[in-house]
Write a structure and sequence with these properties.
Layout: E1 5-13, H1 39-53, E2 57-61, H2 92-95, E3 103-107, E4 125-129, H3 135-144, E5 148-150, H4 158-169, E6 173-176, H5 181-188, E7 194-200, E8 227-234, E9 240-246
Parallel strand pairs: 1-6, 1-7, 2-3, 2-6, 3-4, 4-5
Antiparallel strand pairs: 7-9, 8-9
């Protein structure tokens, strides 16, 4: 395969909502979030796929980390030649780090992730950015020693980013828990290979609450994506586990 194998693993309500309301990040948790599964239940569910697939990359979208409208950290003005900044940045200190087992990747086409988080000792952070980000942002990442791949113009070209991950970093398998926009973009682009959903017996509703796959409506002659079942399991407490493989062609 010309790109890594991509697996989505996510919790949702029966009506396909992945959170209790709009514009929430993974940090906006309260006691109500247990309706979609406790942290322990999620770790068990997600951990099972970590064991099964041994992914090289855990990939998330920026909306999982930063809210729309959040005030962003101001960056130092860059007054040099920006050309070189828009080349992929893969410092040897991260790529050849002793004990590195893979990567933590974030899709950040607008340059909003500015905490300077460099990842874990065995999994450095890797940003996937577009050419729409400012040179100041790329200079900031380089200053923090955070690797990045540049793919796409106005937004991240996910297909190109995945190809680069395979060609430059030998990434074979990617696991993501980001439903919503990232899952929708991956599905719409034909880049998802497996979908695993843990359904909780609740209905959330909402016009703006994030759904499993947020993407443009189907075109007039565009067929829906077909799936073939890998496994299904219903629990006495109403939870349903459903795993599917995306049908190609």
């Amino acid at each position: 395969m010309y790109r890594p194998y991509v697996i989505l693993c996510v919790s949702a309500s029966i009506d396909g909502r992945i959170s209790l309301g709009p514009n929430r990040t993974m940090f906006d948790l309260d006691e109500r979030d247990d309706v979609l599964g406790t942290r322990e239940e999620w770790e068990e569910f997600y951990g099972s796929f970590q064991e099964r697939y041994r992914p090289d990359v855990y990939m998330e979208g920026s909306n999982m980390i930063v809210k729309e409208g959040d005030e962003l950290r101001e960056l130092e003005i860059y007054d040099g030649d920006p050309g070189e900044l828009y080349l992929d940045y893969l410092p040897r200190e991260a790529v050849d780090r002793p004990g590195r087992k893979g990567w933590l990747a974030a899709v950040d086409g607008r340059g909003r992730l500015r905490s300077g988080y460099t990842g874990e000792k065995d999994r450095p952070m890797l940003h996937l950015v577009s050419r729409a980000v400012s040179p100041e942002y790329l200079w900031f990442l380089r200053g923090a020693g955070i690797p990045y791949l540049v793919a796409g113009e106005a937004r991240v070209d996910l297909a190109l980013a995945l190809v680069k991950m395979k060609e430059k970093l030998n990434v074979k398998t990617v696991l993501t828990s980001s439903g919503g926009r990232l899952a929708g973009a991956l599905l719409k682009s034909g880049l998802l290979d497996e979908v695993h959903i843990r359904f909780s017996p609740v209905i959330i509703g909402g016009f703006n609450t994030p759904v499993l796959f947020a993407s443009p409506d189907l075109g007039e002659d565009e067929p829906p994506v077909s799936l073939e079942v890998i496994e299904t399991r219903a629990c006495p407490d109403g939870r349903i586990f459903a795993g599917y493989r995306v049908v190609r062609g």
